[in-house]
Amino acid sequence: MAIRRRLNKKADIQISFSWLFALIAGAVILFLAIYISTKLIMNQTYVMSTETAKQIEILTNPLETGFESETARVMTLQTDTKIYNECYDGGNFGEQGIKLTQKNFGKWPEPGAEIKFKNKYIFSDSEVQGKNFYLMSKQFNYPFKIADLIILTSAEKEYCLIDAPEEIEDDKNVFPDNVKFESEGCSKESIKVCFAGGKCSINVNYAFNYLEKEGKRLEFTKDLLYGAIFSDGIIYNCQIKRIMKRASILSDLYSNKIEIVSRKDCNSNLKENLIQFKNFADVDEKTNINFQILDEIKEDIENKNKNADCRLW
Amino acid sequence: MKNKKAQLKIQQMAFMLIAVTLFFVLVGLMILTIYMGGLKDTANILEEEKAIQLISKLANSPEFSCGDVFSRTTNCIDMDKAVAIKGVKDYNDFWEVNGLTIKRIYPQETGNKECTLANYPGCDKLTIVEKSGSFIEYSNFVSLCRKELDVNQEKYDKCELGIILVSPKEKG
Lengths: 313, 172
Hints:
The structure holds two protein chains of two kinds. Chain A is of the alpha/beta class. Chain A contains seven helices and twelve strands. Chain A has helices spanning 2-13, 17-60, 166-169, 225-230, 233-262, 271-281, 291-306; strands at residues 72-88, 95-102, 115-117, 122-123, 127-141, 145-154, 159-162, 179-181, 191-194, 202-205, 210-213, 216-219. Chain A has a six-stranded mixed sheet with strand order 3-2-1-5-6-4. In chain A, helix 5 runs antiparallel to helix 6 (271-281) and helix 6 runs antiparallel to helix 7. Chain A is elongated. The termini of chain A are far apart. In chain A, 35% of the residues are buried. The mean pLDDT of chain A is 90. By secondary structure, chain B is an alpha+beta fold. In chain B, 37% of the residues lie in helices and 26% in strands. Chain B contains two helices and five strands. Chain B has a five-stranded mixed sheet. The N and C termini of chain B lie far apart (63 Å). The model of chain B has no long low-confidence stretch (mean pLDDT 87). The chains are: A alpha/beta, B alpha+beta. Chain A binds chain B through residues 16-18, 21-22, 25-26, 29, 54, 58, 61-62, 64-67, 92-93, 117-119, 144-147, 249-250, 252-254, 256-257, 260-261, 264-266, 309-313, and chain B through 6, 9-10, 13-14, 17, 21, 46, 49-50, 53-54, 56-57, 59-63, 65, 67-69, 73-75, 80-81, 83-85, 87-88, 90-91, 93-96, 117, 120, 147-149, 153, 155, 171.
């Protein structure tokens, strides 16, 4: 009796070889499937992030075509996204870089590959987070058209303009929904931008062309004000250097144009001013742009061009 | 006898596992092919849209646009300025295109003669970027405007029909 009971117990734990084989093979296949799927998902996340960065580049094109410049448009992404704005001021025109990462299972994976382009100027914080973003474009003429500036903000951040001068209020239709004037009613959490002093995150001295933000002083010329408000100091200083590099090359272009139109009896007295403008616009990496001097030269050029026999731009 | 039966079962199991795996792989491949096919079409449409936007953007960029010089503003190229680019080398990689050409199509006077600073405006074609290789070209009609002198040596604005041809850089 006792022997039979022991034999039965042995049979209870006895697993046939075919079961053992199936379990091991199944485990191996399952492990491989999970491993490959994880790798594929990670790869796909990287590809998706890179593709989305490229799509942002494409999305900004209409803002520079002339039909849609000086407008704002909303950009909605499928998941919570962090956009990294990178700016490089080396070379002839510098470079604009964009990379992003999208939240996946509650975590932020490594950002996708950086997309670089030379002919865009995106003003924003170094890192912008959200699902809905606003793209606003503003033409920059100094004294001739230099570029369409693109201002990128997250819909999660609201800006409140307090005591803004009339010139700024005239641009109301250019602003996206997250930029409001005090008269429209601002939320408590909004970033306050003061134009006439006060306890604000950003204090603008409109008369002397500078603003103070996070303990830093950013100098601007009128049309660059929005760039200074909505981007951090590093990005702003880099972008204005890139823009001024393009301005300096454009002044070369207009100097060449003077010679071409002079064949048609169109004489211009702007050549010397353009050379002067070029010298002050193209500064090396360590020097800051002197907008006070440039504003004076610009005004002079603007007046001469307005009254010229044949306008250059 | 018992051993042989077990071996047969292992073989059966192994074949079954391989067959099931192969089945899923094939189904996966089929889904991937259908998905990739749709993706390719979408990519081509997007690429075309992007190229058209790029052309408009180029025509209205400060290097080419008419600004306030002529009565037209959008899709108007100031040829006096565009020719001046010939003297500036910095623009080679700026627009990230493989080819960028402006052609006068009406009236064509010189049979596609290339413009230089010396022969302008006695020419029909201005090549700004030309990279070796064969690339897809997209085009759009534009006004080509310039300052001209009439028979009485009076200045006037002359605008003609032109085309802008762009070969965008491939994806990636």
